[in-house]
Amino acid sequence: MRNTKALACCLLVLPLIGTARKTAWKVGARALSASACHERQETLKRELRKGTDLLRDARYAEAQLQFEKTYAAALGAGCPDIAARAADLAASPQGAIPAWDMYHYRGRVRLAQGRFREALEDLRIALRLARAWRRSAPAADASRIGVEGWLEKVHAALIEAGNRLYLATRDPALIRETFEAAEENRASSLCTLIGANPAGAALPQAYWETIARLQRAEVDALRSGAAADGQAVRAARADLARIEAAVIPGADPLPAALLERTQSALGPHDALLSFQLDSSASWLWALDRQGLALYVLPPRREIEALAQPARDAIRDASPDAVPAGAALYRALFGPLAPRFRAKTRWLLALDQGCFNTDPNCSDKLVTSLFDIPFAALPESTRPRIVYVAERRVTVIVPGAGFWLDSAARWRTPPDSSLFLGVGDPIYNLADPRLPERLRPPVSWSPLSLFGYFAARPGLVLPRLVASASELNACAQAWGGASVLLEGRDAARRQIAEQLKRSPLIAHFATHVLESSGKPSYGLIALSLTGNGESQVLEPLEIARWRIHTELVVLSGCHSAAGAALNATGLLGLTRAWLAAGARTVVGSRWPTPDDDGALFSAMYSRLRSQPRRDAAGALRAAQLEMIRSAGWRSSPRYWGAYFAVGSE
Length: 648
Prior knowledge:
The protein is of the alpha/beta class. The chain folds into 4 domains: 48-195, Serine Threonine Protein Phosphatase 5, Tetratricopeptide repeat (Alpha Horseshoe); 198-247; 258-406; 410-646, Rossmann fold. β12 and β13 form a beta hairpin.
């Protein structure tokens, strides 16, 4: 009744003009809002009393569930005081030891109330408990995706509380704490993959049999798109997770003094730029030998809204590429102090975008920072366009902790100078290089040929004719010993045998496919087998190899394909090769032309002449050569696709 009267009062004054009309609507809206809020509060208070009754009866587990439910409902209804009370009661020391997530919940409520110091205290407790939970979680990659996704929320809340308290107090200890929290979370999953299965630790035969089953299931799913084939992929991945959980230990936390160790390892011309995107504000930590600085960036949605159009415009050579790219550069790097912008080498530790369970993430804006072609962003536009690549080297690092540990592993360079090239595989039954027994008779009718190809188990992919020329040109530019696996030799067994020789460089000029399941990842398409079946290299298999290869180049389409997951890091092929032991991986962010490898030839020529090998620096030199050349290769659409990720 109260609501009806309030609305009627509004309607009576509608004929009035100007300010009176607007005021009437506001009065009615306030009355409706106040009434609805009062009713919600009364309902929530009743739910809260149910929990206290359960607590009084010593039914602690049921009480905690009731408080958690009330907390979630109160937060969603915009009643932070009741949410805070529910979180306090759920985290009370009576009964069972409280779960880490209730400290997280209470910390978030206090953060929303502006009680930053109290929020930070709660979130520190939540993080300590969450670290123990992480170490007890299975090390299997599929399991860690869920674990890391939830823990990202705890880290994000602690980071926001600590950074906002820093902005109010300017206590440098606070941004040190938030920097280390962000970097610990960012690198933990990849460090686990690298450290969990040291050289010499053999996985059971059942593991490799399951890998083979997964590969066959992936090919079937890509070929047919049938739901049953997708279920076979999921079943195989679940079996892998169970095997790994039984034989691979959990992760240890990153070592102490991460900030000091990182700072001392940076060169005089280096800066580490660490990003964290969040819904209310995003954060950028900038570190060099002089110290650490914190910058506030636009919220995640605003950055995503700039990132996707800029990426698409650069990829498509659109007229909007320069203004869109320049706007994105200003949003990400505009606040940096001149000393950081003057550095000639940026190490970029990137937030990977929305985790797929976050309700605040947009379904349409799926671009993560990893998708941004940083080298191709215009840093200035007058008197001429100057791209980031023209002023500095950019290297993506999975995190400061990984960068430090990987650099320590690579203090002794490999003895080998071998160049391993893999390309121009046999992808279809029409390829004349296929054994004659697998090819259909020339005299068959079109209908017979259609039935023959439809019955074959392999994928039908076009031949990459120019990839053989690319491999030859790259091997000549490198100038050292080389092994080129082409045609039927571009197969799993031959690749594994050659990787045991610890080649300095492994260059793949192949198709790269997107997996059928979610989260998706990249699959390297290899040559058909002797039975005409397709072969693919899975990231799960690659990550379990143990190689000592300084540079892996993925020259295929979508070679950086992988799910954009917060904190879990590079889930695609780049991440798998780093986990296997590669120092640096060079990949592409969008489909690249099947040409003769001019950019890579320039990169290998520069790499060969360097006194100290620097793959990211050699890539940048090749990009500069493309910029200064005439023709289509001078466009960022070509050279801007490529990036380096690793430990350099």
